[in-house]
Design goal:
Order of helices and strands of chain B: HEHEEHHHH
Number of helices of chain A: 5
Shape of chain B: globular
Largest interface: A-B, 38 and 66 residues
Oligomer: heterodimer
Strand content of chain A: 5-15%
Largest sheet of chain A: none
Distance between the termini of chain A: 58 Å
Number of helices of chain B: 6
Helix content of chain A: 40-55%
Structural class of chain B: mainly alpha
Chain lengths: 135, 159
């Protein structure tokens, strides 16, 4: 039991550091909220609306509502989609087995003149090894 | 660049490097052909690959040739008689296995580079290379791999 307690107890140094961090975080939040005028409703109520009172004016027309609540979000959505898809579309050099291959053959470390070498190649009686596979 | 249009210059560079590293550090003559072969029937693939291997001329007996046909979805490893002790058929089979699984996932250059390394590692260092040389080349490889972006833990686990 003692051994278990020993292993799970937090070292006092770590505990102190954690408390200091928490205190600093709370202090920073409090300062930020006070600076924003969170404690004083009058300081943030720039439009002058009364609490619980409907604002005066005609409100939005149908067109404005569609623009603000329909097209606006749609535009943002499309922008994000474009940011996600465009890089992949620009450099989509990834091989896809189903799409085939229409590039000219490349021989790395091959003979200087592959066409002529293949033309004059004689398999001879060498016993070659290796392996094959398909996918 | 659309899919199926071949390897990018960066990918070609990676393949060249892998082939060159195998030659320099393992004294292994590896060459890689990426492209479809003109065949009437895919069953002739092995014969055609052996012909390509013969096209390496006097290098042929001690050369290892990888033939990768992305459109025909076939891969072939051909080893010359003089190199079969260093690269036995089971090593070739393992390399083919790691390539096919990488290709199925769409990673063409990565699969080839890993397979080339796998074969080169299995072949060991070249005859007459001292332990000091070996150590130096290992350090060099480590330095290279720190710069490279080809780390593929899945394929590495096959070793």
């Amino acid at each position: 039991m003692r051994a278990v307690d020993d292993t799970i107890s937090t070292p006092s140094g770590g505990l102190l550091a954690g408390r200091v961090r928490a205190t600093l975080a709370i202090a920073a939040t409090a300062v930020a909220l006070t600076a924003c005028g969170g404690g004083d409703p009058a300081a943030t109520n720039h439009l002058g609306f009364g609490n619980g009172v409907a604002p005066e004016g005609d409100g939005l027309t149908t067109l404005q509502a569609v623009l603000v609540y329909g097209l606006g979000p749609l535009a943002i959505l499309l922008l994000i989609a474009a940011v996600v898809w465009l890089p992949g579309m620009v450099r989509s050099s990834r091989y896809r087995p189903a799409r085939g291959w229409n590039a000219a053959p490349l021989w790395f470390g091959g003979p200087a003149d592959p066409a002529a070498a293949v033309e004059s190649a004689r398999t001879g009686d060498l016993v070659r090894g290796g392996a094959s596979g398909s996918w | 660049m659309a899919a199926g249009d071949g390897l990018t210059p960066r990918q070609q560079e990676r393949l060249e490097q892998a082939v060159e590293t195998a030659r320099r550090e393992n004294g292994l003559d590896i060459s890689v052909l990426v492209g479809d072969l003109e065949l009437d029937d895919v069953s002739q693939f092995r014969t055609a690959s052996e012909r390509l291997h013969a096209a390496l001329g006097e290098r042929s007996p001690s050369a290892v040739l990888f033939v990768v046909a992305p459109g025909q979805r076939r891969v072939e490893v051909v080893t010359g008689p003089a190199v079969r002790r260093r690269v036995p058929d089971r090593v070739s089979a393992l390399a083919v296995l790691s390539m096919t699984s990488a290709f199925r996932g769409g990673d063409l250059p990565g699969g080839i580079v890993d397979a080339v390394r796998q074969v080169a590692d299995a072949a060991g260092r070249r005859k007459g290379q001292s332990i000091a040389d070996e150590r130096r080349s290992v350090m060099q490889r480590r330095a290279d791999s720190m710069h490279g972006s080809h780390a593929d833990p899945g394929a590495k686990a096959l070793h």
